[in-house]
Write a structure and sequence with these properties.
The protein is α/β, with parallel strands linked by helices and 440 residues long. The chain has 14 helices and 26 strands. The protein has two domains: 226 residues, Enolpyruvate transferase domain (UDP-n-acetylglucosamine1-carboxyvinyl-transferase, Chain), CATH 3.65.10; 208 residues, Alpha-beta prism (UDP-n-acetylglucosamine1-carboxyvinyl-transferase, Chain), CATH 3.65.10.10. The chain starts with a strand and ends with a strand.
């Protein structure tokens, strides 16, 4: 990884833009399309490195996939038992979602497989997935608790009634996917609501699934029928612009066709509690997922105690929410967000280090952060060089901070921005951010 962002201070955001497709939904469209009967047509697919990793894994499992071509993908489904043994190791790159959901799906196959990932993914915890799968009868081995993951052919899986200890959509999804291959019923109960794209999309592929409060149940042995999937713009990518336009005086920006699944909109709720001016325009439903255009105008933000129930619903947006907090008047306190420590980087430590380097009064805690924001329209950040530790969301969050900096911000190791947001630099420049990418 060699490139850096150089972002000039100041600016305001204007116009209309559509950020790339939702990463969570893109991964799932390939996975469910692959094990369905028939041809699944996807539009709005995220052409980012993470979703491409998933695509390549399924090609290695014998699935014919056309595209991506301007967001269009055709998945020639092979049916529940049509995947072929892979010739080599299945490389998930930087994508935790790919690896964890694949563990669930591959645990029920009649062939063995090995999953690997890049340096960051190789540090991430996998026991949270392997434990329930092993309880279902899967044969999974990891070196310690981290990748690579070796899966031996299972004789048979049995359903489980799983009380999930961490609020994780990836763990929930892995267990449900394994449940499709298991005897009897599989249930997952979550400690707090997490994104429900797997459940919604399974429904769209014809799987019967029951939700009762925090518990979701499916019966094994069901078949999936091919579907048409329209992937909305990723609210997690839109979040950088929601914060950017909120903190840059004079901004007025419309974000088009943003996914508004209620398990993903915590970032809007949190920003509104801080005083943000976000208008939801033309709410509609597209292929089982709510979608809307969002108009965001600059506003005077103030610090808040982030409500605990919103944390899991905004988990990927905290890097940029910390930037918003540094601009807001008064103190912002985030607790109950310990999961941030096991994302693509330790996002509590990485953000606290970067914010301190920019002169922000930020204090990392075990499960969150306390930030004293400056308020008003004066610069909230100094000039500095920031280490992103190869984490896409950290890199983009600090790029947004430059809008309220007193001098240029340089962000190192930004190549992984392409995992979730290909074209970020061009889109951000067009909207008014003084950003450039340089080899460094
Ligand atoms: C994801 C779930 C979230 C999120 C990740 C994508 C998914 O992780 O952080 O970026 O697509 O299921 P959890 O498994 O911690 O919920």
């Amino acid at each position: 990884m060699t490139n850096s962002f150089q972002v000039g201070p100041g600016g305001r955001l204007e116009g209309r833009l559509r950020v790339p497709g939702d990463k969570s939904i893109s991964h799932r469209s390939i996975m469910l399309g692959a094990i369905a009967q028939g041809l699944t047509e996807v539009s709005g697919f995220l052409e980012g490195a993470d979703a491409i990793s998933t695509m390549n894994v399924f090609r290695a499992l014998g699935v014919r996939i056309n595209g991506p071509d301007a967001g269009r993908v055709l998945v020639h489904g092979v049916g529940m038992h049509g995947l072929a043994p892979p010739a080599g190791v299945l490389d998930c790159g930087n994508a935790g979602t790919a690896m964890r959901l694949l563990m669930g799906l591959l645990a029920g196959q009649r062939f063995g497989s090995t999953l690997s990932g890049d340096e960051s993914l190789s540090r991430r915890p996998m026991r949270r997935v392997s434990e329930p799968l092993i309880a279902m009868g899967a044969k999974i081995e990891t070196t310690g608790a981290t990748p690579p993951v070796h899966i031996a052919p299972a004789e048979s899986l049995r359903g489980i009634d799983f009380l999930m200890p961490v609020a994780s959509a990836q763990v929930k999804s892995a267990v449900l996917l394994a449940g499709l291959y298991a005897q009897g019923e599989t249930s997952v109960t979550e400690p707090a609501p997490t994104r429900d794209h797997t459940e919604r999309m399974l429904g769209g592929f014809g799987v019967e699934l029951h939700r009762e409060g925090a518990r979701v149940t499916l019966r094994g042995g069901q078949r999936l029928r091919a579907a048409r999937i329209d992937v909305p713009a990723d609210i997690s990518s839109a979040a950088f612009f929601l914060v950017a336009a909120s903190i840059a005086p004079g901004s007025d920006l419309v974000l088009e066709h943003v996914g508004m699944n209620p398990t993903r909109t915590g970032v809007i709720d949190i920003l509104r509690l801080m005083g943000a001016d976000i208008e939801v325009l033309e709410p509609r439903e597209v292929g089982g997922e709510p979608v809307a255009d969002l108009r965001v105008r600059a506003a005077a933000l103030h610090g808040i105690d982030v409500p605990a129930e919103l944390v899991a619903l905004a988990i990927d947006e905290f890097p940029v929410l910390f930037v918003a907090a540094a601009c807001a008047a008064g103190r912002t306190v985030v607790t109950g967000a310990g999961e941030l420590r096991v994302k693509e980087s330790d996002r509590i430590a990485t953000m606290a280090d970067g914010l301190l380097a920019l002169g922000v009064d930020a204090r990392a805690t075990a499960d969150g952060m306390v930030i004293e924001g400056v308020g008003g329209a004066q610069p909230a950040f100094g000039a500095a060089t920031i280490e992103s530790h190869g984490d896409h969301r950290i890199a983009m969050a600090f790029a947004v901070a430059a809008l309220r900096a007193s001098g240029p911000i340089v962000i190192r190791e930004v190549d992984n921005v392409a995992t979730s947001f290909p074209g970020f630099v061009a889109l951000a420049r067009a909207a008014g951010l003084g950003i450039g990418q340089v080899p460094a």
